[in-house]
Design a protein that fits this description.
Elements (H helix, E strand, L loop, with lengths): L8 H10 L3 E3 L2 E3 L4 H13 L9 E9 L3 H5 L3 E3 L10 E3 L6 E9 L2 E9 L7 E3 L1
Parallel strand pairs: 2-5
Antiparallel strand pairs: 1-4, 3-6, 6-7, 7-8
Length: 128
């Protein structure tokens, strides 16, 4: 081993477990830079008096395809309660195929959800 220690992986796992550190699935979230965070906070301050009943909200979500082995390989070592420490988070959408679902809502109303596979500019298929 690099540190020059004669120690088995099982011993390392045992020592980490005694300190509450286990291999866990990394929390996934979109990458937000400090600029993104500052702009979001600025938006909140600018529009806190907005009558949100007159606004249409839209949202989208992505589902990634890929092998189970690839998803399992992204684990991190962390303690319980450390899920949102930046260095313990995997950013989403690195590689692989995705399908996007998009929807909209208005005060007291809801809209249809649309699924989009591919890229709109290159012949994406929509599913309603």
């Amino acid at each position: 081993m690099e540190a020059g220690l004669d120690i088995s992986p099982q011993t390392v796992r045992k020592i980490l477990a005694e300190d509450g550190i286990y291999r866990r699935k990394a929390t996934e979230k979109p990458h937000l830079t400090d600029e993104h965070k500052a702009r979001r906070l600025g938006f909140c301050h600018r529009y806190r008096e907005q009558d949100w009943r007159t606004v249409v909200f839209t949202d989208e979500t992505y589902f990634e395809t890929g092998s189970l082995r690839m998803r399992r390989a992204k684990g991190v070592l962390r303690r319980a309660g450390e899920a949102y420490i930046p260095r313990k988070i995997n950013c989403k959408f690195g590689t692989g195929s995705t399908i996007m679902f998009w929807g909209a809502i208005l005060y007291a109303h809801s809209g249809a959800v649309t699924g989009v596979y591919g890229h709109r500019d290159y012949g994406a298929k929509e599913y309603n």
